Amino acid sequence: MKKSFHLQLHEYFNSVESLGELQLEPTLLMQHAEASYWKTGKDEAILQEFDGQRGFLYHLDVTLEAARMIPLEIDRSDLHILYVLSSDGSLFLYDTTAEPLTDIACERARYLYLPPDDYAIELPKGRSQIFGLYFSGRIFRHGNERPYDFLKPLIAAYRDKAAEPQCSIDFSVGPQTKLQIEIICRELRAKQLNNEAFIYAKLIQLIELSLEKVGQEQTKEQHDKRIAVNARNLLALYIEDEGQSASLKRLKKDLKLDSDTISRSYKRYFGTTLSDLREELLLEKAKEYLRAGHTATETAYALNYSSIYSFSRFFKTQAGISVSEYVRRLRKGEE
């Protein structure tokens, strides 16, 4: 397969003759690959590339003292899978507008449709291991793409020769995926007919595995969403019913789940903690009472505070202003 993914390492690194000139060691060896070695100061990279008829494979080891932007030239439309096998940060892909097209975190991967153009990859500070392969979108034909809903926009873009790049949702790179990649790299053979069948079979396995990973994460996300939304709605009712007496422990009984599961699902789905939500809901309920014309004392006791002092301290901590200042702003129409 003709090479179409040209990572311009020479724009930052200097080429060196051999691995012996580097401190960096390859994390895996791609058999019969063409290897190149790069160094600038303490920054080093090892690029291994293998040209197969059914797909082009590459593996990059890199260590950087600071994040670096590396130019990338694409000269033919293909479908790509880009795996960040390990890293100390996320990888970012940019187009010519200098806007990020996508990011890929450690132990995550994405499919990409990249039409011919100039791009750039921002590699994170620290040590990174990246594996990629690209192939013709003609692998999807005769309706065999139907199970791959998350890839359909990319397949359509490939078939239509679209001018705009496309990115899939990301998915997990776990031990099974890493082992598949290790086997591919270890078993590559140069100029052997059965090698192409091997590459094709492994490509199909990686595509099928990515579908499995996407399905697992979507199922897990739906599970987290159900728990998180139910927890949020119940906590809002607790606050309405009990004010500051509302306890997060009640969720355990009502949802019939342990507290750690509820907290993790809520954090994964909403990105904040249940304790933060409780304070947010309580503050909003307090503001609701004050907007309705209740005094600070009436609001404090309506929310089950034992004293106006406790309520005032809570309000100032959460709202950043005192109750009296909030009421003053209400009267002036500033809130």
TrEMBL record:
**Membrane spanning residue stretches:** none
**Annotated GO MF terms:** DNA-binding transcription factor activity; sequence-specific DNA binding
**PANTHER family assigned to the protein according to its UniProt record, in alphabetical order:** ARAC-FAMILY TRANSCRIPTIONAL REGULATOR, HTH-TYPE TRANSCRIPTIONAL REGULATOR EXSA
What organism does this protein naturally occur in? Sphingobacterium alkalisoli
Does the keyword Repeat belong to this entry?
no
Recorded superkingdom:
Bacteria
* Classification lineage: Bacteria, Pseudomonadati, Bacteroidota, Sphingobacteriia, Sphingobacteriales
**UniProt KW keywords:** DNA-binding, Transcription, Transcription regulation
Q: What is this protein called?
A: AraC family transcriptional regulator
InterPro entries xrefs: Homeodomain-like_sf, HTH_AraC
Q: Which SMART domains match?
A: HTH_ARAC
